[in-house]
């Protein structure tokens, strides 16, 4: 904690605010403090300005006369409750010794310490010294906490980046057999994040989708070459094997505590479901299909149609959108297709910037 030292409150740096309506009292106290080495003091003789002054000056310590006209010290302590919830501000309350209840009342109201007048200079100096030291320790702890929070934040970011990196490599490994460049999964991530944003998903959900959706077909790792790379149409037996890529993928990704990995698992399992219930592997219908699975399905089919596969030529984007429009209600939730068409200029930009 190298910078802890630097924030240790030096005596001459401690900001001390004296609030006393009697100017003479305030000035003589200020003189005592200055003589004791406290150079950074201010006096306020108008109690009504106390809150503003505290907010603006941000003192390290407040010396407060309790008995004042218009607004007394107890009311000022009350006014400062909100401020003191955010900032550590010790208050030394001063009052005439004749009032025996004042001490208890002041401490109950929230004063940190109390001194009855008249007092000896040395006594107030010691009290202030102690309070400034406590203030300093508090500042050190606050600073350490902030430094720790920063470290935790940086570390969490590093871990997340590492996790995203591993996810991307896993998706690339799965994709490698039928697409050496990995461009399909990159485009898919971008499409899904952009599409999700247009549908009102949160920034965090969009970021997770960017990294989770490329794993949608990770289960194709378990599909034999003779089926995955077959240049022609699949037989129904072959297609049954092909369908297992959804469950294989979900099993591969299952059991993680990480929300982004859980999202990837859900996508792997549900991206081949269809709105009318004719999809696989579970035959889910309509809203039973998680939204992230539906989002991925729209983007995946668009990308599959517009790119070349071992078993088919690439379609034009226009032909792909027309086909997807024909599949509203059957394959896709209609409003999702409509929204995807609305954001088509963005989709097209991603497509042209990330060619095969
Ligand atoms: P994929 O190539 O990534 O295709 C994903 C989805 O895009 C397909 O899911 C389908 O819904 C849509 N799609 C792709 N190409 C066409 C097309 O020419 N016409 C239409 N109407 N839709 C298309 P699906 O059908 O469940 O296929 C899942 C995966 O199975 C495909 O992923 C691909 O790897 C494989 N596959 C599907 N059909 C064949 C085929 O005839 N031959 C071979 N070798 N593989 C196939």
Helix and strand run: HEHEHEHHEHEHHHHHHHHHHH
| Strand element count | 5
Ligands:
ligand C2E
What structural class is derived from the secondary structure elements? Answer: alpha/beta
How do the strands line up in the largest sheet?
2-1-3-4-5
The CA-CA distance between the termini, in Å, is: 50 Å
The rough form would be described as: rod-shaped
The residue fraction in helices comes out at 55-70%
Task: Describe it.
The chain is of the alpha/beta class and 356 residues long. The chain contains 17 helices and five strands. A five-stranded parallel β-sheet has the order 2-1-3-4-5, with helices on both faces. The longest helix has 55 residues, at 121-175. The site of ligand C2E has 14 residues, from helix 14.
In short:
The protein contains 17 helices and five strands. The protein is an alpha/beta fold and 356 residues long.
Protein traits:
single chain; 356 residues; alpha/beta; five-stranded parallel beta sheet; 17 helices; disordered N terminus; binds ligand C2E
Secondary-structure map:
Layout: H1 4-7, E1 16-19, H2 23-35, E2 41-44, H3 50-57, E3 61-65, H4 73-79, H5 81-86, E4 91-96, H6 101-109, E5 113-117, H7 121-175, H8 183-198, H9 203-212, H10 225-228, H11 236-243, H12 245-253, H13 259-270, H14 291-306, H15 317-326, H16 334-342, H17 344-353
Parallel strand pairs: 1-2, 1-3, 3-4, 4-5
Helix pairs in contact: 8-9, 8-14, 8-17, 9-13, 12-13, 13-14, 14-15
């Amino acid at each position: 904690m190298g910078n802890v030292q630097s924030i240790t409150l030096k005596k001459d740096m401690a900001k001390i605010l004296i609030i006393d309506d009697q100017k003479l009292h305030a000035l003589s106290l200020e003189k005592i403090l200055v003589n004791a080495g406290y150079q950074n003091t201010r006096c306020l003789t108008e109690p009504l300005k106390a809150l503003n002054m505290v907010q603006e000056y941000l003192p390290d310590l407040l010396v407060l006369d309790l008995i004042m006209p218009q607004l007394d010290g107890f009311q000022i302590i009350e006014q400062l409750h909100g401020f003191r919830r955010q900032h550590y501000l010790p208050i030394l309350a001063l009052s005439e010794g004749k009032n025996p209840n004042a001490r208890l009342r002041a401490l109950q109201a929230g004063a940190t310490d109390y001194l009855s007048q008249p007092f000896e200079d040395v006594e107030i100096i010691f009290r202030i010294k102690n309070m400034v030291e406590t203030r300093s320790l508090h500042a050190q702890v606050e600073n350490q906490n902030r430094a720790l929070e920063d470290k935790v934040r940086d570390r969490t970011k590093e871990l997340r980046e590492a996790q995203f990196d591993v996810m991307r490599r896993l998706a690339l490994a799965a994709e490698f057999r039928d697409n050496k460049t990995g461009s399909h999964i990159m485009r898919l991530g971008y499409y899904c994040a952009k599409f999700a944003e247009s549908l009102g998903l949160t920034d965090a959900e969009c970021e997770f989708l960017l990294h989770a959706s490329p794993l949608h077909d990770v289960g194709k790792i378990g599909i034999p070459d003779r089926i995955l790379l077959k240049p022609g149409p699949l037989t129904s037996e072959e297609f049954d094997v092909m369908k297992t890529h959804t469950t294989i993928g979900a099993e591969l990704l299952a059991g993680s505590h990480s929300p982004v990995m859980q999202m990837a698992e859900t996508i792997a399992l549900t991206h081949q479901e269809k709105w009318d219930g004719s999809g696989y592997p579970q035959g889910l219908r309509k809203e039973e299909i998680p939204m992230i699975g539906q989002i991925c399905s729209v983007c995946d089919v668009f990308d599959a149609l517009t790119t070349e596969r071992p078993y088919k030529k690439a379609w034009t984007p226009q032909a792909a959108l027309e086909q997807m429009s024909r599949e509203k209600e059957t394959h896709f939730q209609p409003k999702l297709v409509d929204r995807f068409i609305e954001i088509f200029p963005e989709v097209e930009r991603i497509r042209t910037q990330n060619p095969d």
